[in-house]
Amino acid sequence: MRFVLRILKALALLLVLLVITAAGWLFIRPPELLRVGDGYAAKIVCSNVFIAGREAEDVLHDDVQAPGNPLLRLVRVSVDRDNDRVTARFMGLFAPSYALYRGAFGCTSVPDGNFEAAAKAAPFDPPAKMQANDALWPEGEGTGNSADGKIAALLSDAGVAGPAMRAIVVVRNGRIVAEAYGPGFSAKTPLIGWSMTKTVNATILGRLMLGGKISFDDDNLLAQWKNDARAKIKVSDLLGMESGLAFNENYGDVADVTRMLYLDPDMVSLPANAPMEAAPGQRFRYSSGTAVLLSRIWMDRVGNAQAAFSYPHEALFAPLGMTSAVFELDARGTFAGSSYLYATAHDWARFGQFLLQDGVWNGQRLLPEGFVGAMRTPTAASNGRYSQGQAWLAPGRGSSAGAGLPEDTFWLTGHDGQSVAIVPSANLVVVRLGLTPSRLDYQPQTLLKAIVTALPQSGAQQQAGSQRQAQPQP
């Protein structure tokens, strides 16, 4: 009996030592996967608390834990409102990661904990806050009497709207004809676009093109590329996701994309130092790193740092009346052009309407002729799925024609079910925002097809099978 007790005591002691060792290891050298998880939690909670005005525990549960990796259910967060910070820790103890709120520029991940550097990276003179008004949309937030009961009824169908829908706005002939919101969300709630931000970022670059400060054919884009093959990469290669740069966009593990977003305070560093894996223009590789490079490139072309920080607001958001738009910066002062734009569904619809109007707003051309045409022109390397302007022609599975949609449809799409569908032949824009992971297999074409089918015969249904019109080339 004594022998057995000794064995049990030894095993208990060994177990305690193992626990202490594991805890010490997690405390001193936490695995990168835990740091990524905590970085993601801190950033998402920070943005939704300080930009959208949501409760931290609701965001942690609904946005971070419910749809994600089971390990995220062990993450705990704390919000320091006095210092505008959020901290996330695995089990409340390990792998701490941080996010900092910087006013008009939203939140940023601060993976190195250097809050002083992160604070100094954001300008002290942010653009003035725009105020919404009650005029009829798109001039204001009013919707008037343009509601379409048939389309509104469609939006109440969960099978059409999709799981965990948060906002849908349907714009026909320049007016909102239907909208719907999930529980806890409204027309006033800013929502993340994820990769829809890429298309907005490309459009900001397009504003510079109108002023002659950059062109599709520009090369020698970064000083560090000067003496190697990367010097031949053109702006057009980056816009079409055909730069030839290696980049791992796999979100299931610690990959280039998660390292860039949650482990590196300077998001430009990783994609700027990526090796070439193909000649420019020869291979399609979807890359969030590419979009961040485009941010850095257009910011450098603006002229000076303060002007660059103000440029999205002055060049795009203010002219379109996107009063809610918050375009976030990384911890070293580059716009996170891959992922982090928050805006209300009404403002996402304004952006969609702007593209529908070929880059013209209130009679003023804000984008060069042919720029939106590039967003509607397929690239060969993507097999026609992606366009020459950071937009999709065939998101998810299949083509527009195969889904029974007008062939001129093009899309903004983002992680977890964000989409803006633009259908010029139907004079139609459909915004759908939510928290719908890809594993739920919801396709945005489902909603758009139902709406197109409900339109009057004089609209899109007559043109759904028509031949695609030739688009301007960049």
Could you describe the 3D structure shown?
The chain has 474 residues and is of the alpha+beta class. 36% of the residues lie in helices and 14% in strands. The protein contains 16 helices and 14 strands. It has helices at 2-28, 32-50, 56-65, 115-121, 149-155, 158-161, 196-210, 235-239, 256-262, 269-272, 288-302, 305-320, 345-356, 371-375, 444-454, 457-463; strands at residues 75-80, 85-90, 94-101, 107-109, 165-172, 175-181, 191-192, 326-327, 341-343, 360-361, 364-365, 410-414, 418-423, 428-434. Helix 7 (196-210) packs across helix 12 and helix 11 (288-302) crosses helix 12. The protein is globular. It starts with a helix and ends in an 11-residue tail after the last helix.
Number of domains: 2
Strand content: 5-15%
Helix content: 25-40%
Distance between the termini: 85 Å
Give the topology string: H per helix, E per strand: HHHEEEEHHHEEEHHHHHHEEHEEHEEEHH
User: Looking at this structure, what is the CATH superfamily of the largest domain?
Assistant: DD-peptidase/beta-lactamase superfamily
The top-level CATH class of the largest domain is: Alpha Beta
Report the radius of gyration as a whole number of Å.
23 Å
Please tell me the CATH architecture of the largest domain by its name.
Answer: 3-Layer(aba) Sandwich
Give the CA-based shape: globular
pLDDT < 50 stretches: 21-27, 458-474
Largest sheet: 5 strands, antiparallel
Main β-sheet, spatial strand arrangement: 6-5-14-13-12
CATH topology of the largest domain: Beta-lactamase
User: In total, how many beta strands?
Assistant: 14
Can you give the mean pLDDT?
91
Which structural class best describes the helix and strand composition?
Answer: alpha+beta
What is the count of DSSP helices, taking H or I runs of 4+ residues? Answer: 16
GO molecular function, one term: hydrolase activity
Protein name: 6-aminohexanoate hydrolase
Keywords: Hydrolase
Domain Beta-lactamase-related: 167-433
